[in-house]
UniProtKB/TrEMBL annotation:
Stretches assigned to the Fibronectin type-III domain: 736-823
Origin species: Ruminococcus albus 8
UniProt superkingdom: Bacteria
Keywords: Signal
InterPro entries associated with the record: FN3_dom, FN3_sf, Ig-like_fold
Signal peptide as annotated in the record: 1-25
Name this polypeptide is given: Fibronectin type III domain protein
PROSITE patterns according to UniProt: FN3
Length: 909
């Protein structure tokens, strides 16, 4: 109602502004936002009715979203919407509105979870839709209730949590929250439903639950948080419920469904007979929706005992399970039964009887879904009767038991195939024909084929046309005869094909320009290709090889056996030294040529002898300070073996023959400091007398300057001679810099920072307080920076510090407080049915929005709306051009920046 009142008020003001200063007599004046405006009562009613129609139409329209941005907008707005394509979500979504999502067969994948604080419904009207979460907190968390109950209704599709950790399920239900599952598949790697705290309520009446049930320590009485009314499960829900409920002394009533068909509902038994029960669910009388126990076993029927309460006609059979607990099986009252005479009992379903509980009986048996047998037809496969279980496997029934199929596939009966009868031929002239077939199994199955027609001229002067079709591997023919025209034939002798040259069969050239062959007493027409014998292919033998003198190149020559063609192929040559030449023996090198021709590889080898090698003699050399020396030795170039004697009796290595250099020796070095604060050492070698200059290792200890104190750098040079360390130091003062002062200009989600240049500064760093500490955001050489990503209305502490002497002056005493300018709403304007319709984007931190029009050289505020309202519809107005703007009020002030640049014009025709 509030929304319509605001629209009507703004509509009245717009009506006044469109009459170009004239006010009809039936208008009245009223004050609005400090201005005086007029409205027409009939216009109010029309606008209100139009708004109602628009809202009704909007409520029936289903929005389709196909991106994360559209999904985010739809969740925030609420209402019904559908998924148009697979979407990967990157954000965590807190659903505060009432949202209904139709997956429409699409997939939502996310690393986060949905947090429900309003109401969420997930359905899938197409099938195959899925929500997959990799969050450790599961897929859906229904938060504590605030002013309204948070709820999640799951009606279709699949919701899966792949990495949920202990104490978090695919769906987690907090205190005061409600989870209702009526369909779909809920799947988890561990816990499917986690009842987090008392006061939450989970009701499952349909669908498939793959996973366990869990309860927190505070939620000890699990039965109060979980209600099972239907559905299929991979885990027995009863084993996860609180055992405290078993201590109740109330009578437990049974609704019985036997484990097999031999015990049918309504069958009569006598005392002493046995019955077999499988996975029977037992319920408390006063809370029939909560599962208490699952019982299986074979029991003997005793005589009935009578209830001592108000209803003495109600009868029971007491059964005791494997845990020693007793349960009462409800017997339907029957006129034959009384306290003195008992003939038998009758087991009945509890449905429809007084105080009968809702029952999930034989839970796992019901997980077998039957597919009826289907006979095959000509084109479609059939199948034998089979069952599909919740484990995804196939089963069949033998002697009232489910037997797993040996081959895990549907028992298919192949299609029978068509049984085609004799075709009906239809000729068009003499040279075109069609064959029509009808299936003998099903007359509705028909097929018509275009025939291939051939012609033969007989010696008696007739033309015989033969039509041929093939269907399912069977050939069918039909013939037609006509008088042949007068044609003369010229015989063409047969020519054998040769290598690279085509031949031909014996045939006849007709005077009609066509080709014929004579067979079966007549001339049959053939195509030009039918008389040609393709050219024979060349047949090549083994190649001959040709090598150059250096054995580095070779070719393979292939010649056709008919001696009419030669092919030369370049070979790839490789070599391998099989025996190395030494001073004792000759060596051998084997060269191999490889050529590929017509997909086959050919090789040829040539062996070459290498002359003996000679020993090399190396004289002894004494080592120096800077060069290695060596002992006298002999070595073989080809084998790289080294010997201490020319007779090669004592083998050694090059390393044993090498004498390492002695290196320089000295003391008391002189340290020489360079302008770049590096250092050298200088000393005289005591062995060779050479003056040596070498680099010293320099380390630096820095003390950064501030705006009030100088800094310094202490350099330490270190050198090591003959195992002794020598050091020298140098201290450099870094003068304190002038302070850097920051000014700024606010923009949308940003500020332009400017600061003064400081003498001696190497560069500047822009800093801000992040998590309570000053941190460098960026650094550079200029004196300005655009700081982006700021929230409107929020203040930030920033400072700019200089780098002097290679050190940051981390003095934040000249920090500044900055804030971005408010956001500007983005307006969409259109004209429809003589009205101006405005919609604009929400502005964070906005308290109100104002709509203004430019009139008589100034901006006039027509009215304002609360921040939740982001649209406006005018009444019907006169034709003309209007200049308008929408402004936001942030922190108590209207944002009137750049009004003329933000304004838009709209024309009403």
């Amino acid at each position: 109602m509030k929304h319509n009142m605001i629209k009507r008020t703004l509509a009245g003001v717009m009506a006044v502004l469109t009459v170009a200063g004239t006010v009809p007599a039936n208008f009245v004046s009223f004050p609005l936002f400090g201005l005086t405006a007029s409205a027409e009562s009939t216009a109010d009613a029309a606008v209100n009715a139009e708004n109602v129609k628009e809202k009704e139409a909007e409520s029936k329209k289903t929005v389709v979203v196909s991106s994360e941005e559209e999904f985010k907008a739809a969740v925030e707005k609420g209402g019904k919407f559908a998924i148009g394509k697979d979407i990967k979500l990157t954000e965590e979504y807190i659903i505060k509105s009432d949202a209904e999502i139709d997956l429409k067969g699409c997939k939502l994948t996310t690393a986060r979870e949905f947090i429900v604080e309003g109401s969420l419904t997930i359905n899938d009207t197409v099938g195959g839709g899925k929500v997959t979460s990799e969050s450790k907190y599961g897929a859906v968390v229904i938060n504590d209730a605030t002013d309204k109950k948070a709820s999640f209704t799951f009606a279709g599709g699949t919701v899966e949590a792949t990495k949920a950790i202990d104490k978090f399920g695919a769906v987690s239900v907090a205190e005061g929250a409600v989870f209702e599952m009526t369909g779909g598949t809920l799947k988890s790697n561990d816990i499917a439903v986690f009842c987090e705290r008392p006061g939450g309520k989970t009701t499952i009446s349909g669908g498939v639950v793959i996973g366990k049930f869990g309860f927190s320590e505070e939620n000890k009485v699990g039965s109060e948080a979980l209600s099972i009314k239907g559905g299929r499960f991979t885990a027995d829900p009863a084993k996860y419920l609180s055992k405290e409920s078993k201590a109740s002394k109330k009578t437990l009533y049974w609704s019985v469904r036997p484990a097999d068909d031999t015990i049918a509902v309504g069958k009569e038994f006598s005392v002493g007979d046995t019955i077999t029960l499988k996975d029977q669910w037992v319920y408390l009388e006063e809370d029939i929706k909560d599962v208490k126990q699952s019982v299986s076993g074979t029991f003997t029927l005793p005589a009935p005992e009578f209830y001592d309460g108000e209803n003495t006609e109600r009868k029971y059979i007491k059964l005791t399970d494997a845990f020693g607990e007793s349960y009462s099986l409800y017997l339907k009252p029957d006129s034959r039964f009384d306290k003195k005479n008992y003939d038998g009992v009758k087991i009945v379903s509890g449905e429809g009887t007084e105080k009968s509980p809702f029952v999930i009986a034989s839970l796992y048996d019901e997980s077998y879904v039957k597919t009826a047998a289907k006979e095959p037809d000509c084109e479609n496969d059939g199948n034998m009767e089979y069952y599909t279980a919740i484990d995804g496997k196939y089963y069949h029934v033998e002697e009232d038991k489910f037997i797993e199929e040996e081959r895990q596939e549907i028992p298919v009966i192949p299609a029978l195939g068509h049984r085609w009868g004799t075709p009906e031929w239809t000729w068009t002239g003499s040279d075109s024909a069609k064959a029509a077939f009808t299936c003998e199994r099903d007359e509705e199955h028909k097929k018509e084929l275009e025939a291939k027609v051939s012609v033969k001229l007989t010696a008696s002067g007739e033309m015989v046309f033969t039509a041929t079709v093939e269907l399912d591997g069977v050939e069918y023919t039909d013939t037609r005869t006509a008088d042949a025209p007068a044609i003369t034939f010229e015989k063409v002798e047969a020519v054998e094909a040769a290598c690279g040259k085509a031949g031909n069969i014996e045939y006849y050239k007709g005077s009609d320009g066509k080709n014929y062959v004579f067979k079966d007493g007549g001339y049959a027409e053939v195509s030009a290709d039918d008389v040609v014998i393709p050219a024979a292919e060349h047949v090549y033998g083994e190649p001959t090889w040709e090598w150059n003198n250096a054995k580095s190149e070779a070719v393979a020559v292939f010649e056709c056996k008919n001696k009419d063609d030669k092919q030369t192929v370049n070979a790839k040559v490789t070599s391998k030294q099989t025996v190395y030449a030494t001073y004792l023996n000759e060596g051998k090198i084997v060269y191999t040529a490889t050529a590929t021709f017509e997909g086959k590889e050919y090789t040829d080898t040539v062996e070459v002898t290498v002359p003996k090698n000679t020993l090399s003699h190396v004289e002894a050399v004494e080592p120096t300070c800077t060069k290695d020396g060596n002992m006298e030795y002999w070595w073989d170039l080809m084998t790289l073996r080294f010997y201490e004697d020319p007779e090669c009796k004592t083998e050694t290595t090059i390393f044993k023959m090498t004498l390492p250099k002695t290196g320089h020796k000295g003391s008391d070095p002189e340290f020489i400091w360079n302008e770049d604060n590096t250092a050298d050492i200088k000393y005289t070698c005591e062995v060779c007398g050479e003056v040596i200059t070498d680099d010293a290792e320099v380390t630096a200890k820095k003390t950064a300057p501030s705006y009030s104190a100088d800094g310094k750098v202490v350099y330490t040079a270190t050198a090591k001679l003959d195992g002794k360390n020598y050091t020298d130091t140098k201290e450099v003062t870094v003068s304190k810099p002038e302070p850097v002062d920051v000014t700024y200009h606010a923009g949308s989600k940003c500020v332009q920072l400017n600061w003064n240049a400081v003498e001696g500064a190497d560069k500047y760093a822009v800093c801000s307080i992040v998590k309570g500490k000053w941190q460098i955001i960026t650094e550079g050489y200029g004196t300005s920076y655009l700081l982006k990503g700021l929230e409107a209305g929020q203040e930030y502490q920033v400072a700019v510090i200089p780098k002097v002497g290679g050190m940051w002056c981390k003095d934040f005493t000249h920090a500044a407080t900055v804030a971005a300018a408010p956001e500007v709403p983005t307006v969409n304007a259109q004209v429809r049915d003589g009205r101006i319709q405005l919609e604009w984007s929400a502005v964070k931190g906005a308290e109100k929005f104002g709509v203004a029009v430019y009139r008589s050289g100034k901006w006039v505020i027509m009215g304002s709306v609360d921040a939740e309202e982001t649209s406006y519809i005018s009444p019907e107005i006169r034709n003309g051009k209007y200049k308008m703007v929408v402004c936001a009020k942030v922190n108590g002030k209207w944002d009137t920046r750049n009004l003329n640049d933000r304004a838009f014009e709209i024309t009403v025709k």
